[in-house]
Amino acid sequence: MFKPIMAEFLSTALMIVFGVxxxxxxxxxxxxxHGSGHLFAITTWAFxxxxxLFVFGGGVCMNPAMALAQCMLGLVPWSMFVPYxxxxxxxxxxxAVVAWLIYADxxxxxxxxxxxxxxxxxxxxxxxxxxxxxxxxxxxxxxFVFVSGILSIAHFxxxxxxxxxxxVGILVWAVGMGMGGMTGFAMNQARDLGPRMxxxxxxxxxxxxxxWRYGLLVPGIAPxxxxxxxxxxxxxxxxxx
Amino acid sequence: MFKPIMAEFLSTALMIVFGVxxxxxxxxxxxxxHGSGHLFAITTWAFxxxxxLFVFGGGVCMNPAMALAQCMLGLVPWSMFVPYxxxxxxxxxxxAVVAWLIYADxxxxxxxxxxxxxxxxxxxxxxxxxxxxxxxxxxxxxxFVFVSGILSIAHFxxxxxxxxxxxVGILVWAVGMGMGGMTGFAMNQARDLGPRMxxxxxxxxxxxxxxWRYGLLVPGIAPxxxxxxxxxxxxxxxxxx
Amino acid sequence: MFKPIMAEFLSTALMIVFGVxxxxxxxxxxxxxHGSGHLFAITTWAFxxxxxLFVFGGGVCMNPAMALAQCMLGLVPWSMFVPYxxxxxxxxxxxAVVAWLIYADxxxxxxxxxxxxxxxxxxxxxxxxxxxxxxxxxxxxxxFVFVSGILSIAHFxxxxxxxxxxxVGILVWAVGMGMGGMTGFAMNQARDLGPRMxxxxxxxxxxxxxxWRYGLLVPGIAPxxxxxxxxxxxxxxxxxx
Amino acid sequence: MFKPIMAEFLSTALMIVFGVxxxxxxxxxxxxxHGSGHLFAITTWAFxxxxxLFVFGGGVCMNPAMALAQCMLGLVPWSMFVPYxxxxxxxxxxxAVVAWLIYADxxxxxxxxxxxxxxxxxxxxxxxxxxxxxxxxxxxxxxFVFVSGILSIAHFxxxxxxxxxxxVGILVWAVGMGMGGMTGFAMNQARDLGPRMxxxxxxxxxxxxxxWRYGLLVPGIAPxxxxxxxxxxxxxxxxxx
Lengths: 241, 241, 241, 241
Hints:
By secondary structure, chain A is an all-alpha fold. In chain A, 72% of the residues lie in helices and 0% in strands. The A-B interface holds A 37-39, 128-129, 131, 134, 137-138, 141, 145, 148-149, 152-153, 156-157, 160, 163-164, 166-167, 170-171, 173-175, 177-182, 184, 237-238 and B 3, 6, 14, 17-19, 21-22, 24-25, 30-34, 36-37, 39-41, 43-44, 47-48, 50-51, 54-57, 98, 101-106, 109, 161-163, 165-166, 169.
């Protein structure tokens, strides 16, 4: 039981090192890739997730919403839901701390020069336009497509873990670019709330309001709705799992 | 019979959520990825189609022109042609409505600030240079390559659905960038006319002429010509199907 | 015998439609993707070649230099070398004419507005810095890596045509970006001289000198040197074929 | 014994031709792809490594740190460690010389026009912010993820060399973009010190200080730490090799 929980923690942390890391890279001063844009960042999120699957195998969820869907489908025992979710949240927090350790010098030179909201958004997803119900709807839809996609890929991919991982990366690429522009495609409590907590705790200069209300209501809840719908859809309509 | 028709509807809708969605993302104000450019957009169209195949399997056409080619080759019964085409057209419409629901706040803040033609072109394909015969020729050629490519990929890929889906994405990537600059590579009645109808119906501010003449004559007809030639070519020259 | 020669003609033509097409797209006025840059263009060249292999299978050379290497290795009979090379050259010419037909309206609106040298370079490869011996060396090296790579990929890929085709695209991507900046990575007589002839023949306004001396001496000869070395290398050092 | 050592030399050289080459391409004047940005460059590094694996097979290390990890795991005999490391260092030097030969005309026209530090950084990795302990930590972490990833990919990929090579490219893509912005992701003595020596020796105009202290202390040592941890991790936690 220790190993899978540890794998959830480590894989989620690694995902966040890639994802928060690439936002540090493109947003902060003092990095080589400053200003490299959204294709650069979303490609890293997408294929950083592939790397997590390469390393930790196809069993990891890295996401409480995905864990919920897999519990509903009987792929993960319900008794593991809370341990997995806690490990993932802590992994999200730890990964953001590691990314901050990597980019700490860039945070230093960016203090007072890079907009405080942009620095906060390195960690957590926050929409440009404040509209809670719409954001909730978007995160639910995005997660529905995301979780349905992963489950289908796993179904069709069988034993070919590498191909499964590459296809999951491609899925994140497309969802991020096509459906992510309003909310930043959290689709995962651990991806949003873990790094949001890190922003709260880390000694970053010029902090702005951390928008917990948005974080808890939208990326905190909507992915469960989307993932539950996805579990029903893949089982009921696609007839897999 | 219900399931495959429903799959056509849903897969086409999902494709359009990706494709119209990414145009919202890059064209409208108020999105995070505003101005991310054509590589960003075409990558999303391309691998969004891969995702549709990951989820709905290799049997879906998502395109009346492709349905025609598959009927000609005996892969889909002729009795399904009209039901498929209708489901796909409705899917294209529904997908554009979902994309609009996701990006509705961005449409709002863009009203009067983003050029009306650019907003219309989020939905449908319209050339920069008005030349109906040339556009017809281009859409026929593009569809010929597109449909021939998919059929060959399906032939060589066999059971490996994930690899087939990735290769179809790569095909769309190359066709879009290399052959798409004049007409926007519709190659599909459902992709163009479904979202064009959505633009007609949705409460978008500052609408411009919807260019139905172009829509019906070029993306409405030319893809059938290209797809029929593709069916003859893969059967007669390549000797597959 | 007719079929493989026709396949050489058609596949080379298709490759050039992608490649010359994407240069039209990024260079000419009046296209949607004007100014999309080199990553956009090289990605299209790379994965356009994957598409040619998807459609025409792994047997096509699309390149007299590759045909030479395959003749040296006994993969193609020497009696086919001249017919293949002629079919490929004509394919290169035909493909450039098709690309011109697709983008003819953009050529029209670009006349006198886009630099004549840039328009010529849509078709053929010409270095920014005139240095024949250096360019010869570069094209030989590039072709050596390119042909060695394809032969190795074919060896390791076996029957998995789709994966082979994707990997060849990845190879072209890397060679184009990493080794292509001085000469434009022709690596193929049919890719350079076919479209160069098309530029000579087509009614394009404001033509500039067509640089045949460069075309014939560098992309006309150096790829044979690189490909012959590649044949010796894969046979003698890698021990394949 | 000669063949594998020669393969280390040649594969490392080829990797550096891609990597140093693409930096020439984007940094120097007189190249076609000048200013193409970091996505362009990192994509080339990533998939250039895939090409090296396509050509030389899955056995090559191309990296003394990777050789160390494989010796620790019993995949490479310890007696080969020093010969491999020397061959790799010389390969890194030779590859940088070949890249310089390819781009020599561009070096010429860039003299006095492109910043001397930018020219030096074509060859070797040097951080924008001088902080030795932080850089050491970053290079150790990056190498840990890099080597763990490759070993896992090799484990899951088995005989499918092409898929393994593509996945290694994807790994480098993600690590480079997400974790590379502070130090330039050397992760390899041969990649940094070989080209650094080439910069020392080649007749480049306007040379700046070559920063050997950084080169020897950070990319010279930290990758061994990261790779050793990776060997322990994949054996002890993942239970592979």
